[in-house]
């Protein structure tokens, strides 16, 4: 088959499946929103238990990370993520999944070379970039205040 680039693009366009963009966005919106509602409910419960606002926020983050890792370990989070797409990626539970999933995937290689070494394969660059960016931002702030 000898095709030009425009002909090939047209051929691929005809063969590729249509993306149900509206359905995917709706699923991501309601599942991501549900995770955020859970965070708000947990915040209210922690506040009622006597925690101040900052401590309640920390407790909510820790709880959501724990639930995300637990559901990943039980194999539930991947099913929800397949259904909701980015709705599970954006909240903090997506970070927990990004750390726990590679650790589980490589556990057969052993504790140190598998689980521990591979745990941050996906989340590691995000952590490094976040810490690096915050250091650069902090240095810029210090320099601007010194001027």
Task: Set down the secondary structure blueprint.
Layout: H1 5-15, H2 21-48, H3 53-73, H4 76-84, H5 86-89, H6 92-105, H7 111-118, H8 123-146
Helix pairs in contact: 2-3, 3-6, 6-7
Terminal-residue CA separation: 66 Å
Oligomeric form: single chain
**SSE order, as H and E?**
HHHHHHHH
How many beta-strand runs?
0
Q: How much helicity do the residues have?
A: over 70%
Gross morphology is: extended
Low-confidence sequence ranges: none
Question: Strand fraction band?
Answer: under 5%
Summarize the structure.
The chain is mostly helical and 147 residues long.
Please explain how this structure is put together:
With 147 residues, the protein is an all-alpha fold. It has a domain at 21-121. 81% of the residues lie in helices and 0% in strands. The protein has eight helices and no strands. It has helices at 5-15, 21-48, 53-73, 76-84, 86-89, 92-105, 111-118, 123-146. The longest helix is centred in the N-terminal third of the chain and has 28 residues, at 21-48.
Keywords:
single chain, about 150 residues, mainly alpha
């Amino acid at each position: 088959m000898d095709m030009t680039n425009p002909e090939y693009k047209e051929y691929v366009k005809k063969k590729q499946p249509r993306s149900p963009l509206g359905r995917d966005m709706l699923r991501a919106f309601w599942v991501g929103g549900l995770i955020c509602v859970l965070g708000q409910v947990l915040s209210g419960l922690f506040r009622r238990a006597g925690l101040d606002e900052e401590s309640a926020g920390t407790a909510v983050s820790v709880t959501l990370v724990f639930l995300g890792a637990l559901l990943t370990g039980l194999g539930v989070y991947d099913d929800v993520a397949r259904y909701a797409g980015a709705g599970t990626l954006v909240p903090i539970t997506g970070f927990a999944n990004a750390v726990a999933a590679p650790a589980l995937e490589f556990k057969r290689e052993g504790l140190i070379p598998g689980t521990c070494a591979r745990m941050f394969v996906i989340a590691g660059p995000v952590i490094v970039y976040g810490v690096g960016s915050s250091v650069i931002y902090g240095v810029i702030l210090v320099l601007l205040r010194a001027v």
